[in-house]
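Supplementary Data S3. Sequence and structure tokens for construct A.
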Amino acid sequence: MSIVTEAPIWFLLLCILAGLIYAGALYFRDRFNRTYGSFLASVLGTLRFCCITLLAFFLLKPLIKTINRDVEKPIIVVAQDNSQSLVVGADSSYYNNEYQQQLKGLINQFGEDYEIRSYNFGSEVREGIDSLKYNEKLTDFSKLLDEVYNKFSGRNLGAIIVASDGLYNKGSNPVYAYKKLNAPVFTIALGDTTVHKDVLLSNVAANRLAYLGNQFPMKIMVEGRKAQGETATLTVSKKGNNVFSKNISFTGERFSEEVNLTLQAGEVGLQKYTVTISSVSDEITYANNRKDIFIDVMDSRQKVLVLAYSPHPDLNAIRDAIVSNESYQVEVKLIDDFSGSISEYSLVVFHQLPAVGGNGMSAIQNALKANVPSLFVWGSQTDFRAFNDLKLGYSLEFYRNSNTDVGASFAEGFSLFTMEEDIKLMFKTLPPLQVPFGDVAFSPGVTNLIQQQVGQIETKNPLISFNKTGDNNKVGLIAGEGIWRWRLGAFQQFETHEYYNSFVTKLVQYMASKEDRSLFRVNGTNDFLENESVVFDAELYNASYEPITNREIKMTIRNEEDEIFEYNFSPNETRYKLNVGQLPVGNYSYTANAMTDIGTQTEKGEFSVSALQLELVNTIADHRLLYQFAKDNNGEMVYPQNMNSLVDMIRGKKEIVSISYESKQLKDLINYKWILVLLIALLSAEWLLRKRAGTY
């Protein structure tokens, strides 16, 4: 600890000089000290000298500098795979008992020289290894990487120990993903690399949606391991009745056969199909011999028309995203080639229409007259005089026949439909759209989904927004061309088109959906995985169509065994929410009731919970991946019986040591309370002595 000041050190002499002058002038003017006498004058002068010198010194703004040294031990992260694949077969009792004691013994051997942080992981990452159940339905090394990186990046991360069978079915390959941690990785090779006898359904693929009266395909992959000479029966059943059957003969040690079939969608609603391959003797597990598939059979699909003035890469980018949702049928036409009826469609996308010369105005007016929702995409070929005449709540004045690159930012407070957080953040990194340059005006009723961002400045100008015309018809606007770049940018960011497709289909779903003016609505998906929580939200309105949350909403859920479960929704701002939690695999129906001013309102629906069996498909441990994982990250792979050797390996690495951090802190000296006490004490002592001497 030391005292520092920004003023030169010789200023301290001026402070001392000020104290001497003040004390001398006050107590030593009379060289004979007739008033106080020599001794008392010296004492009083000393007190005054100290007080004035301190006060003058504080004018220099002195600071107290303290230096703190902290020692951070190297952090060792121990991560245990908690997925189902570890306990398939004969070793399950070992992992549930003896192995867990070995792992805890390994942690204890590190002693006080290291900070040990333990985790278990599967589809999620949780802290601690005291409650291992090996019941996770997925294995995701990426989630573990993110957890370790977020918590320990920038800290003294010494090493990571990952105990796993090397099998992963979600996220990226750990061999390449972990290099950014810049810490050695050691692996404990668990599981069995022996190929056991097993007959299984490695994959069953079918479209989630089908349409009444149509046929839909199903693809089934059957595998046999060490089942040569065996025969099993593949069956597909619905409500206990077989709709397909085939005998499979296994002719090799590693056998696989793809079975393609076509089924008829003859009943509306959520239909459950059970695919089964009969078991053979001495299989390692029978859990992978059955899969349940749920097909949502609908009456018809909605039709979307994309009309454009001329070919453009935006057209395919919009079309590909919409057709990823099987609820929609998409047609892409140039305006000069279109001769159909606009009223047949649930949504029309007008790309750069009306075009120069008012081209396309007839089709637009027909759509507005028929109350067909219309989504407009502005571009360099748009005729803005004709567009402004439509009076849709948007206008662009003084168009200068030029475009400007404009970025995107999600509009906070948007509530017409929900967007995932990853998609909201995605817009910040997407390439800009080419927006026509001019003066934008929009009516107060416009709701922005995406706002224009110029450089780092977020504006309120709409980039993607929605409005309603006087006839209560939905209209939307994408105020620039080049959305095909968004598709590429989203793929570059996430390595999948899923996020871009989800964004476009949500936009289309809102635009194409018919206006629902009912007082009570229940919203939620109709397909959940068994490791997901079943969640619903509900909306309740009064007679003035204002949202209310002061009424009780009850829901009863019925499973396939006719068991009934009752729940209550909880108010959540202007909506209600219900989290049922995880439910067993199967088909469910629900009935929700809410009391309103005009009586009881009822909503009914169906949903399914699908099984996750990815952990049971591959029962052969991948120790090659674990070896490569460790080698590429400056570590070693060991087997459970040798796991204690990891302590010596880590201690032997010279770079894994404690780190001493030095931090400096500056604080104003005048902020210390004892300084005030000292000054008061000096002045009080002086005053008391002067009073005792008969002066003031």
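Construct B, processed identically:
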Amino acid sequence: MLKYWLIILIALPWKLPARNISKDILCLAPIVTIAENQNNICFGTAVTIHATVINDGTNGVYNWKMNNLYVAASSIPDFNFAGFHDGDIVICEYTCHTSCGGDTTVISNGVTIHVFNDVIPLVTVSNDDPLICEGNLTTFTATSFYGTETPFYQWTVNDLPVGSNSPVYTTATITNGARIKCVLTISSPSCPGTSSSASSQLTIYVYPLIHPAIDIKPSKTDICRGETVTFIATANGGPSPSLAWEVNGVPNGVIAGSFITNTLQDGDIISCTVTVEQDSRCNTTTTVASNKVVIHVKDYADPSVTIAAPVLEACPGKSLTFTATSQNGGITEYYLWHVNGHNIYPSGQTFVYDKFVNGDKVSCTLFTDIPGCPLSANVLSNIKEVMIKDTPVIDFAPPEITIIAGEQAQLNALVTGRLAWHVWNPATSLINPQSLTPSTIPLLNDTLFNLAVANVEGCTASKDLPVKVLHKFYMPTAFTPNSDGLNDVFRIPAGSSLVLGSFSVFSRWGNLVFTTTNIKKGWDGKIFGEPADNGIYVYLVKGIFNNKEVVVKGTVSLLR
């Protein structure tokens, strides 16, 4: 700095006043330099940095900056600090009042501090799979930073030490909610006895597996053949375990919580297997077998029943009798009879039935208790087929005959099959009753004829043939409505074969005095409840006679 001032003085004209030159030469700016008392230190070592000032003024202030940030100000030229980090740079800004009469600030050189073990350790714990299933092998990894220092790893599970000095911890026994923690401690060979540490912790979820168990219990183990046994399974296998039953180790297809059977044999072994599908995220299946139950079966002689009948042939409507005979039955026996598989009631050891048709098949089921066993059995008998003979069928042509009173009727009977005999009744009203087509004698009244026949197989039949006799009607010419009980009403005579349409009576002037459609009613000789005058009255009858419409008109005399 001084040489520059000398150069300036040499270059100035000599005409300048000598007073100014001496003043500028004496007014020199301060110079500040700093130096540390030690460097290449361990973290936490105190370092003193001393400032030396040349051309010092008055009222000097030392402003210390570290990494361009002000950290201290003092009138003392020393800066003491024990928290340096590797690479920190310290400078000093010095301010004083110079002899030239003004405040001046100058900046020192920089001092770079080197710290051997200035490393802040970092560690983060993670596992290789966010899905941890109970019993699965799981690896936890510590991702760390420790510079050039020497690391040491300490793993804990729920605050209990595990693992070894390794950034990896592997286990298959982790449980739900466990706290996995890793503490990283580092040390420096250049700074013995010093260390720093960091830690990271995970609280994990472990999907629990179901550990199933199953036990089966029978309703009984000593049974009779055919006796029903119920097996109940009690399983610990989550909300919906799958159960599969086995008989003698072979699955029988039953997958329910119970197994009911009546087909067990002596020595059969019953077991059940429970299968649990774990959480689908873990994709595991667990199967456990139950205890085994041995069944002891008591044998017995099978009951049986046989049916028989004296005859298996009959005419329609005739009864056949069947009898059931049992073998090896118990104290109580009940017989249920069947015709073509349909139950017939009531039932007993003897079965009498009259509604058979040809080809009907008869059988019987025996219900009985088993001697020495608390159960019943039902067995089906043999089958007997019945034969129902043909019966004669009678038809009349025509099926109903109508004649006029005093005429004869022709009867025509048509009968199927070969006849052994036939009988007409009443035979006295027929001219030739030995024929199937006889003629009647002249008939005056309705007559019901019956034909009875028998075929060569011994089956009979009968049928009625009505013959209706029509009577012409004749109206009376006078009546006497005097309440003497004789001829008091004018009416159509009883026994007439007329189908009445209407019966009306008119006065001689044509006024209607009576009308009816009921053939049993007549005129009592009154008009509006008052006796009518004697005289001639006109009647009109309309109707059907012998299937023809008839109109009859005439007069009647009213006499009192």
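Confidence is low (pLDDT under 50) at residues 1-25. The chain has two helices and 50 strands.
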